[in-house]
Write a structure and sequence with these properties.
Elements: H1 4-8, H2 42-46, H3 50-71, H4 79-98, H5 107-123, H6 136-158, H7 176-215, H8 222-259
């Protein structure tokens, strides 16, 4: 039976990860694989993948946090309720500070984005798990949704005056057309940078973690490798939160541009 990886071109034998003599493959952890069936079977093509599974688990964690956190509300909150309230207050304050009080109506959307990315990032730190936010297909869709939301809101709220976002009135008149072109290009590049920043950081961190874990197999350097894995894992916990925060705060910044294009 043909090798599904080589046949589909997801990761071929000529790639550096499969170089001769390499005992571990850091990029294999990012391969999208169906959960059931063998290559060539009908069920292989129609079953859900590991990406779908771990995204669904992230959604279940979000639902579980707020179902458990609000089922027995108390003046003195328990631990789960405390976490839910802290997350709620953190994002609510972020929207107020960055975007303004008139953007609070977008809180459910922004809050959902933050929690989904946060739990997807943290679940990916479980050994033998999968990181959906390391795939540009996932982060790109999230960023594109933000881009379309911001653009539609900008035109609906401001009409043609939303185009004032690209016209830099503080600059000399002679260079305003050039700046307008630059601003327009940077605006359409937003979903690319928004998505690549998240996917790139998660991919790099998990790849480095896998490399150090592979080095731990070598007896001569295993103590150093274990220390390296511990340090990088701690860093990845921090990165998991920071990247969810960065994606969310950029969403708030873009919403501010839509609501107040002439600020």
């Amino acid at each position: 039976m043909a090798d599904p990886v080589a046949t589909t071109g997801v990761l071929t034998a000529g790639d550096p990860a499969h170089a001769e003599g390499l005992s571990f493959h850091p990029m294999d952890q990012f391969m999208v694989k169906p959960l059931f069936g063998d290559y060539g079977d009908p069920v292989y093509w129609y079953t859900i993948t590991n990406v779908t599974l771990w995204m669904a688990l992230a959604v279940l964690c979000v639902v579980g946090l707020f179902v458990l956190g609000t089922s027995r509300r108390a003046i003195i909150p328990n631990r789960v309720q405390s976490v839910a309230e802290l997350a709620y207050g953190f994002v609510y304050k972020m929207i107020e500070d960055v975007t303004g009080r008139d953007a609070v109506k977008f809180f459910p959307y922004v809050f959902t984005l933050f929690l989904f990315i946060l739990f997807a990032n943290f679940l990916a730190l479980i050994p033998s798990s999968f990181s959906p936010t390391s795939h540009i297909a996932v982060t790109g869709l999230l960023a594109l949704a933000v881009f379309l939301t911001v653009t539609i809101v900008g035109f609906v709220k401001n009409g043609a005056s939303f185009l004032g976002l690209f016209w830099v009135t503080s600059a000399p008149l002679a260079i305003r057309p050039v700046l307008a072109v630059i601003e327009l290009i940077s605006y359409f590049v937003r979903p690319v940078s928004h998505s690549i920043r998240l996917a790139g950081n998660l991919t790099a961190g998990h790849a480095v973690l896998k490399v150090f874990a592979g080095f731990a197999q070598v007896a001569a350097i295993s103590p150093l490798a274990v220390l390296g894995v511990t340090a990088i894992y701690g860093l990845e916990v921090l990165v998991a939160f920071i990247q969810a925060y960065v994606f969310t705060i950029l969403t708030c910044v873009y919403l501010k541009d839509a609501l107040h294009p002439n600020h």
